[in-house]
Amino acid sequence: NGIHRIFSGIQPTGIPHLGNYLGAIESWVSLQEECSSILFSVVDLHSITVPQDPAVLHQSILDMTAVLLACGINPEKSILFQQSQVPEHSELSWILGCLVRMPRLQNLPQWKTKNDSLKQEGTVGLFTYPVLQAADILLYKSTHVPVGEDQIKHMELVRDLAQRFNKKYGEFFPVPKSLLTSMKKVKSLRDPSAKMSKSDPDKLATIRITDSPEEIVMKFRKAVTDFTSEVTYSPSTRLGVSNMVDIHAAMTGLTVEEVIHQSAGLDTARYKDVVADAVIQKFAPIKREVERLSVEKDYLKKVLQVGAEKARELAKPVCQEVKKLVGF
Length: 328
Ligand code: ADP
Ligand code: NA
Hints:
Blueprint: E1 6-10, H1 18-31, E2 38-42, H2 44-47, H3 54-71, E3 78-82, H4 88-97, H5 102-106, H6 109-117, H7 124-138, E4 144-147, H8 152-169, E5 177-180, H9 213-221, H10 239-252, H11 256-262, H12 268-294, H13 297-326
Parallel strand pairs: 1-2, 2-3, 4-5
The site of adenosine-5'-diphosphate has 16 residues, from α1.
EC number: 6.1.1.2
GO molecular function, one term: tryptophan-tRNA ligase activity
Function: Catalyzes the attachment of tryptophan to tRNA(Trp) in a two-step reaction: tryptophan is first activated by ATP to form Trp-AMP and then transferred to the acceptor end of tRNA(Trp).
């Protein structure tokens, strides 16, 4: 399949939600069967582009590690590591940053939206984080990167930086390709015109992987639907119900048609309980495993330490070679 090496990262910001699970983590788990060289990074350097409480950040790194393991990331098959433990990420990021001009970063859509949402002008770190993202990927000479649609512009920058480096210093980096996830964005339960997001102030809008069954039922019961009581699938006109059908299908492995067929005769109020139950069933073993692992802090740290050693074995020679090419 031409996939030689995959890199992907996730920020350690709290317990992942249903959107993160379906849009990222679940596909990472299945990629382990398709490629024998995969790196999954808890990208903590990216987290401090916006203010972080040190104790909360530290805990979030362990929480994210526990969740990834519980979801099926296998540290024997993949290299699971914490970004800041491999200093070559920062080193390569500096070198790549010297190959890109300010307007190229200014024009990235996420800089505009994120910067506009802040009360003060954003930090230099927030501005240059797509360069660090490029370094994350290129440091391992990755050939493929699983991404959501929102990251397409950033992947163009990564490819661009690989090509610029190669042009200036000689063919060195493979130009990585995106592996687009097929999953539609999971929508907010409270405002199905928006995506489910961890930063949503409405706590009822977002299902977390470790939510209790009671919380999951309650959140679905409070989900916004519409005035039609039948369960039908029409993502353009019935956003709330269609989002639930998508979630139901993804959680059970059924097709949308099968879900609709099964749910004929249910009204949306009863259907909410059916979808909640599908989510509860799917997340129950993951939740149990997260709870078991979250008290095994030494084990989690060991996994990250071994992962960082393996990642560094790959990163070091690449970084050394880059520095030689640059003339250091
Ligand atoms: P959030 O949007 O909650 O802040 P992140 O931006 O940290 O989440 O995203 C982590 C991963 O989860 C990314 O790969 C992103 O594409 C995916 N993701 C985030 N929200 C959703 C969603 N609502 N539906 C599908 N995938 C999502
Ligand atoms: Na986000």
